[in-house]
Design brief:
mainly alpha, 6 helices, elongated
């Protein structure tokens, strides 16, 4: 074969390989983008549910504190159950968020969702497990000292 034909064949072969690789990479990027949209949709739904549950819980607690409603232990138990169900898929979603962000994608409302997840974990963690550690003890001691020194305000 003459060198001109060999050169053209080599260029065509390289062009065909580049084309195939571009399409394959596009497909991967497209699939990741679709996963991003799916995750963002799940976050939006999760945050909506979280907001409704949290608002109900806050409204109930305020009404109890103001004497408008009687405290019911069953309400607390129900709220803990609902928050528990809400929390179940959160670790998986956070792993998806981290994976997509590591790939360079921005996930809308990811920070808000992660914050809500932390708050619910705190709600579901028993006080004797939540309020532990040297830092918390130091903060508690400082707060007591400030109160005794008259540096705090009453309710």
């Amino acid at each position: 074969m003459n060198s001109t034909i060999e050169t053209r064949i080599e260029r065509l072969q390289n062009s065909a390989m580049d084309f195939a690789n571009d399409v394959e990479q596009w497909q991967v990027d497209h699939e990741l983008a679709m996963i991003c949209y799916d995750v963002e949709e799940k976050l939006a739904v999760g945050l909506c549910i979280y907001g409704i549950v949290n608002d109900l819980d806050e409204a109930y607690r305020l009404a109890v504190a103001e004497g408008e409603l009687e405290y019911l232990e069953s309400f607390d138990e129900t709220m803990l159950t609902i928050f528990g169900w809400w929390l179940r898929p959160c670790d998986k979603l956070i792993r998806e968020i981290n994976y997509l962000q590591d790939k360079g994608h921005t996930i809308e409302r990811a920070d808000e969702f992660i914050t809500a997840t932390r708050e619910v974990r705190g709600i579901l963690t028993p006080d004797d497990q939540f309020f532990t550690g040297k830092t918390l003890t130091e903060l508690c001691d400082q707060a007591i000292d400030d109160h005794q020194a008259g540096k705090t305000e009453g309710f």
